[in-house]
């Protein structure tokens, strides 16, 4: 359909999906299997993302293998111990109580890679990062589509990407952009957990918007 | 509303917004002013994006100043000339015919920055890029919300980010992640222009998805 026009009701639904999207960790995931059809739909959403020069530079590894998950948890634990000592005071004790991943609890994990092109890519000649950023746009599409399907998604960034690439036998040409945990949940928290715990305050929009009129 | 459940109709609307979203350039933008209310709504969508450690590391500069836009176009032109010589054969002549930005034509431009924290950020201790990636998630939210409002958005990446930061008098601590052009359009193309022109082929989803079951 050319020139599809969306309505204010459509906008309101999109806004709600964005508003109720959460980063989900292991204390919220259910073991209920996620149907392959749902995984396909989440990956299809990724493929609808914008990409620099229409390069579609993304690759996905869908992981359900317990042995693989256990090895990734080891990398998380190593990195999480290193992280814990960086925080001070109240944050130090709070940090150690937080559940920051759901690798084993989520029935499905997806590793998302950026694979660079050997030829020049239109639009990527002055800002190389545009390739990786295309992959991140795809991840945000996955996150929103998962939430619209009432499925939780959590992004685990406390891992050593090179170690995890070794565990996953990834191509040396690929960069690991994200390690995602996906599954049904007992509940979606009303607000981000780190906001509820006052780890960080929500910023006022006007404090981060400037004008050159 | 806690535990908001979305329906298959909601999923279908999200899928359509993703499907009909386009990267819009200067040959499609209309000069019709974009109400401040619409800009606010697009920025609000950005603020609903996930961010590592709830760090919300984004900043936005809304640009309507013609003089500023003209200077940014100069950076585009310099970088675009450098880019043109990188392509060969059919692509070389096609490249020079493409309209690859809409800086002047779009009534509103938005520069989007990542500003790193001086303190350690939860979740960013092992993968530093997670901060920039949060900003890209915010940009994808803006893109989808704009499309749901029937407003076009184009991401200009053929610029020298340091030169543009100079033009915009950006903080030296901020990294320019994206330069966006926003406005109403005469039409949204049915498919991405680079797909229609066979610059690149659409990848089959199955060719980029692998399994570790």
From TrEMBL, chains A, B:
InterPro entries: BluB, Nitroreductase, Nitroreductase-like, Nitroreductase/BluB. Keywords: Flavoprotein, FMN, Oxidoreductase. Residues 20-184 form the Nitroreductase domain. GO terms for molecular function: oxidoreductase activity. SUPFAM superfamilies: FMN-dependent nitroreductase-like (SSF55469). The keyword Repeat does not apply. It comes from the Bacteria. The keyword Metal-binding does not apply. NCBIfam families: BluB (TIGR02476). This is 5,6-dimethylbenzimidazole synthase. It comes from Leucothrix arctica. The lineage of its organism: Bacteria, Pseudomonadati, Pseudomonadota, Gammaproteobacteria, Thiotrichales. The gene is bluB.
């Amino acid at each position: 359909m050319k020139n599809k026009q969306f309505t204010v009701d459509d906008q309101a639904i999109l806004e709600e999906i964005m508003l109720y999207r959460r980063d989900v960790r292991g204390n919220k995931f259910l073991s209920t299997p996620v149907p392959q059809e749902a995984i396909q739909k989440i990956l299809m959403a990724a493929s609808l993302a914008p990409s620099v020069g229409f390069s579609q530079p993304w690759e996905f590894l869908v992981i359900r293998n317990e042995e693989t998950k256990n090895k990734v948890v080891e990398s998380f634990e190593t990195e999480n111990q290193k992280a814990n000592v960086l925080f001070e005071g109240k944050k130090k004790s709070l940090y150690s109580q937080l559940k920051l991943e759901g690798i084993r609890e989520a029935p499905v994990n997806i590793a998302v890679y950026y694979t660079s092109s050997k030829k020049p890519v239109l639009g990527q000649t002055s800002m190389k990062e545009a390739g990786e950023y295309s992959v991140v746009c795809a991840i945000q599409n996955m996150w929103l589509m998962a939430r619209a399907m009432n499925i939780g998604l959590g992004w685990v960034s406390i891992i050593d990407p090179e170690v995890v690439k070794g565990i996953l036998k990834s191509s040396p040409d690929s960069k690991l952009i994200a390690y995602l945990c996906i599954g049904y949940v007992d509940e979606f928290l009303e607000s981000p957990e780190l906001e509820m715990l006052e780890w960080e305050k929500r910023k006022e929009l006007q404090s981060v918007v400037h004008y050159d009129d």
